[in-house]
């Protein structure tokens, strides 16, 4: 009976572990999908039928939406670029650890400031 209980507990543990991994994977996939939609600005296909003339407000909203997407792309690229820069600079630095650490903290501070500015612009 003790072995049976242990076996059941073990199976349950594996099941929970698998489900946790699966849910995390799904979450990551959703994030990736969101990112890919941000990065690939899909062009709207024109209707085959006769198009209605768009009102001024509709046009305004569309330009605003496009601007937001552009800002998001710029932000993603900025983050990506900053990480690449950091890796590249760390490889080039053959100095002792303290200078490397100073370099990292300085870069992080600059990046955080830029991100704060970017966020405040969006609001």
Tell me, rounded to a whole number, the average pLDDT. Answer: 64
Give the percentage of residues in beta strands. Answer: under 5%
Structural class designation: mainly alpha
Kindly give the count of domains.
Answer: 2
Counting H and I runs of at least 4 residues, what is the number of helices?
3
Shape: flat
Provide the helix percentage. Answer: over 70%
N-to-C span: 62 Å
Transmembrane segments: 73-90
Biased composition (Basic residues): 48-65
Keywords: Membrane, Transmembrane, Transmembrane helix
Region (Disordered): 38-66
Kindly summarize this structure in a few lines:
It contains 3 helices and no strands. The protein has 2 domains: 37 residues; 65 residues. 82% of the residues lie in helices and 0% in strands.
Task: Give me some keywords for this one.
123 residues, mainly alpha, 3 helices, 82% helix, 0% strand, transmembrane, transmembrane helix
Describe what this molecule looks like in 3D.
- The protein is mostly helical and 123 residues long.
- It has two domains: 1-37; 59-123.
- The chain has three helices and no strands.
- The longest helix is centred in the N-terminal third of the chain and has 38 residues, at 2-39.
- It is flat.
- The model has no long low-confidence stretch (mean pLDDT 64).
């Amino acid at each position: 009976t003790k072995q049976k209980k242990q076996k059941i507990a073990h199976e349950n543990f594996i099941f929970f572990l698998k489900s946790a991994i699966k849910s995390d994977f799904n979450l990551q996939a959703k994030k990736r999908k969101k990112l890919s939609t941000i990065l690939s600005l899909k062009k709207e296909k024109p209707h085959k039928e006769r198009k209605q003339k768009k009102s001024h407000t509709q046009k305004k909203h569309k330009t605003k939406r496009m601007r937001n997407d552009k800002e998001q792309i710029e932000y993603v690229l900025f983050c990506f670029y900053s990480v690449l820069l950091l890796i590249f600079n760390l490889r080039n630095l053959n100095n002792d650890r303290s200078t490397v650490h100073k370099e990292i903290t300085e870069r992080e501070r600059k990046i955080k400031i830029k991100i704060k500015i970017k966020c405040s612009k969006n609001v």
